[in-house]
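To whoever picks this up:

The nightly regression suite flagged ABC transporter ATP-binding protein as changed. Nothing in the input moved, so I suspect the structure step. Input below, exactly as stored in the fixture:
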Amino acid sequence: MLKTQDLSYWYQNANQPLFKNVNLEFEEGESYAILGHSGTGKTTFLSLIAGLDTPKDGAILLQDQSLKKIGLTNYRRKHVAIVFQAYNLFTYMSPLNNLLTAMAITESKHAGDREYATQVLRDLGIGEDLITRNVQHLSGGQQQRVAIARTMVCDARLVVADEPTGNLDEDNTQAVITQFQSIAHDQKKCVVIVTHELDVAAMCDHQYRLENRQFTKLA
Ligand SMILES: Nc1ncnc2c1ncn2[C@@H]1O[C@H](COP(=O)(O)OP(=O)(O)OP(=O)(O)O)[C@@H](O)[C@H]1O
Ligand SMILES: [Mg+2]
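Regenerated output under the current build:
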């Protein structure tokens, strides 16, 4: 579904790219983990496939059409859902309104469906008592689950997450990864997760490590 074609990126110095001539393919219905030391460019890579930044060289293709051609704004709105480490929820809203707003903005096929949004939140352990509370008054793990719920109620086929379990305990980590696997396997979306945790990566269908400016397939 999503392909990188000789993708290269650097911030200041073209002679020291973070990665160079990367050719990778990501399929729907599959989950991918990206590992790598701090500072190797994992977040940068996610921001490129999420359409938040543009390649310095090469291209990113969605179903053989370049993101450039699709248009980054259109791509971000319609085709990609992002879970940042800092959640990026609308902080002045409740979990329910976060989902309803995202569904409206992205023109999801579920737009306006409160019942559906409530059910998805409930499935992730965000019950009646929490769905109308301001998200700032939720715990980190609860906010993270709202962010994941938000990707589930939108139609975007690509879900990218930057260290989604970075500050979760073991139980919450397990729950979050199970949810991402369900997004891939049941919703048939493509899930790309950056993580430092080997056991989190092991729960994904495919693992890559970013080192020496290249992505190496593990196992
Ligand atoms: N806007 C920027 N301008 C210049 N350099 C940057 C910018 N953003 C990141 N960098 C540098 O690019 C490199 C890669 O950053 P990136 O955030 O992609 O790493 P990462 O692999 O996600 O690291 P971590 O595991 O610590 O999150 C780092 O050396 C970082 O300092
Ligand atoms: Mg990072």
